[in-house]
Structure formats: structure tokens, C-alpha cells
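Record minuted for everyone:
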Amino acid sequence: MLKALLLENLHPHAEAILSAAGVEVDARSGALDESELIDALSGVQLLGIRSKTQVSEQVLEKAPDLLAIGAFCIGTNQIDLVSAAGRGVAVFNAPFSNTRSVVELALAEIVALTRRLTDKNKALHEGVWDKSAEGSHEVRGRRLGIVGYGNIGSQLSVLAEALGMSVGFYDTAEKLALGNARRYSNLEDLLDWADVITLHVDGRSGNAGLFGEAQFKRMRPGSIFLNLSRGFLVDQEALRDHIVSGHLAGAAVDVFPHEPKRRGDEFHSDLRGLPNVILTPHIGGSTEEAQEDIGRFVAGKLRSFLETGSTTLSVNLPPLNLEPTPGTHRLAHLHRNTPGVLATVNRILAEHGVNIEGQLLNTRGELGYVVTDVPGVLSDDVLAALEAMPETVCLRQFG
């Protein structure tokens, strides 16, 4: 029986879907460090994680049985994607499932910070009646600067306009502006213009340190800053300095450079205790609706990969959308993308008298993925010949 290890308190749908597919599931609530993860992956074919578990090259090297990883979140920077691809380990994520949840949290925080609800709430809990409009503003007419105009940034753009905000954005890629949003060609011009800056970029290593002293200094006096993206993008000390000095009127931070592994662990940050600052424990996508959808979506991708070899929406392998073909045996050959591989595969099959009933090929960068349907189970000689090809990364059979 195939085994799956699910970490970080994934939605029960994930366990139910994999169990129904005949997979033995070990579900745990917290993240694991590298040595713990290596031990836990012995004999495991599927790994499900969220953002805290780091799947390094060393982990992958010590997990020869691993077939696929499901990142039950948007980001995949916690996984060594190149090393996983080089071992034929498919990685799937949930690029769309929690976008609405993140957007709604960002909007709620923009309203709360602009109205200084954090300070009013704190004062009233302390028994102080502070009925004043000082420092409180409507979001209507304010200028929202979005850094990163992907699935989250673009949806936030539309909803912010509906609230009456003017929207500008900066993205390193060419993106179609939605509604009346204005595209800025550089980050500096966006910072000069916006009253509110919010980060929604991906976790690639090149984005580390994206926002620091120079960027905070460039922001307009009295503006607001949000980071619901990645903790390592922002210099937390510089953010603190600009809040304390009064240059920034407020901030909301959902992600941190170092986050506790488990619920209930102590949290440390230079941003604790600051006025008009909202700190949340990486819950941008943590709504019941989003987690249910993520659990269903990613587990479904893992199940489909196990049953058919389908790599649709894989972030590291060539994508092939494959359906079951009853009555046939399926051979999946992941290989280095060099000329002549397909011809060699077909020659080996022909030399052993194997008829091809269907075949699909796709490539991504240095890898190629060819899936061949044949009438019956292949002999050991055929498999040995295919595995002996110098271009072969891994060979798997389905059906």
C-alpha cells in the first residue's frame, strides 16, 4: 500500500481523498525540521505540507520512495524544486484556492489601519473613551499601490476600486491592468504616489530583501504598509523604525522571517507592541472555505498523478493532462530534454514487439515527459532497456 505523510494540520478533505484512493495516511498537526522529516519519510510516497516545512535537497536525497509533494498553499519556495524535478518528484500547489481569503484580509486591514481601529479598540479595552476623528480617514479616494499583480494583486485591485480607491501597481512582468488601475514602470514611482503599499509577490530567492530602509524612506509620510506575501521580503527593523518615528501611520504584517513551527509556540518580533500595527500569524489564506478548497484541490492533483501520471499544474515537471485509459498499461518516462529521446523510446518498444496505442510528450526547460499507453504489462527486458538510456531521469508504470 502507498503511504502519505500530511503535515501542518491540513484540511480533513486531503486525508479523506487520499484514503479513498487506497493510500495509507499519516496526518500530523505540526511542521518537522530536516532530520525529523528525513526519518518520517522512510517508505513514504506522498508528502503534504504547508509553508513551514522545508523540503531541502538533503531531504529529497534521503527519500528515495517519494513520488510527489503537495504544497497545500500558494508558495513553493519551501521546496527545492530543481532537486525534486531531478529525482522525478512532482510538486503541486494551490495557486488560486485562497486568493479571495488573502484579498479580503488585505482590504479589512486597509480599512482598519486607515480608520485607526487598532488604537481605538486598544484604548476602549483599557477603559479609555477616545471619541475623535484625528488621524482617521475614509479609504475612498486613497491611493493603493500594489507590488505584484498576480492572482491576488489583480483581484485586490478590482475590489479596492469598488471601494473608491485609486489603484496603481508595479510588476516585473507585463500584466494587463484591470479596471482603471495604472501600471507603474518602476517601484520608486509607485512609492512616491501611493498612500497604501501592499506586497503580493512570489517567494523566489531574488525577491529577498525587496523592501528595506530605502523603500520605506521613499514612501509618502503618513502612508500605510502591508505585507501578506513572504516574511523574508521585508527588513523588519527598518519597518519598526519608520513606525516609531511616525513616518508611517500604520502597518499590517501576516508573514515573518522566522515563524513558530506549531500553534501555541511563542512568537518573537520587533513589531510587537507598536501603535496602529496589525500582526497576524500567517493566516492570509486561513479561512475554512479556502482550506477546504485547498485540501480538495491539491489532494486531487496528488491522486490524479498516482493514478494516471497526470502532471497538469505541476510547478516543476512538464505538464501533461492525462485521463485513465482502461484496458491499457501506461509507461511514464521522465528524461533530460535532448534530441532523439522519443525516437529511442519508440525504437526500444518496437524492438521488443510492443505496440503503442497512445502517446503524449511535453517538455519544460531541461526535462521532457513522455507517456505511452501499451496493450499489456511490459517485460523486465523492456523496462531495463528504457532505464539504461543515459537521458532517463525516472521510469514509472501505471495501470
